Amino acid sequence: MNELPHRYSVVASAKPVGSVWLDGDNLQTLDTALPAQFGGTGDRWSPETLFVGAVATCLALTFRGVARARRLTWTSFRCEAEGVLDRVDGVLQFTSIHIHVHVSVPPGAESAIADLQDAIDRAERTCLVSNSLKSDVRVDAHAYVDESVEAHAVA
User: Does residue 138 sit in helix, strand or coil?
Assistant: First the structure.
């Protein structure tokens, strides 16, 4: 890791109507717009979906790092995140983010399930994005044996 503090720069460009283009150094431009709930078409990333996506992505990347450091065996990680936007004291804000995590292990690696659960818990505690929020972030996780890995390995 580079020395702290880190800085991340983004430029949002807009015209009076239409998309807002989000750019960052050496990054692919994102076409963003209002979500359907605010009158948008719902077919582009919005600030709201990017916000929830940032939490989910950070958890996934943090888990990957924890699992790698612990040399844990796993085959897939799926993180389903839902953010709840509500009015609190007259101000719109995310009040909670509920995350369902599913991590699979290949057959024969059942003993890793408890260690993977611990790695998910560690990722939840150390995810820098969720640690930076005032919203409640709740993670429900499930590690399981991925039987399809064996079926593909035999074929």
Answer: strand
> What is the DSSP secondary-structure string of 57-104?
HHHHHHHHHHHHHTT---SEEEEEEEEEEEEETTEEEEEEEEEEEEEE
Q: Which residues of 74-97 are buried (b: 16+ CB within 10 A; e: fewer)?
A: beebebebebebeeeeeeeebeeb
pTM for this structure? Answer: 0.85
**Cα gap 123→54, rounded to integer Å:** 14
Does 3.30.420.40 match the CATH number of domain 46-154?
no
- Cα angle vertex 80, ends 40, 61, to 5°? 105
For residue range 24-42, list pLDDT tens digits in order. 999 999 999 999 999 999 9
Q: How far is C-alpha 49 from the chain's CA centre?
A: 11
Q: Where are the domains of the chain?
A: 1-34, 46-154
Would you place residue 150 in the very low, low, confident or very high pLDDT band (cuts 50, 70, 90)?
A: low
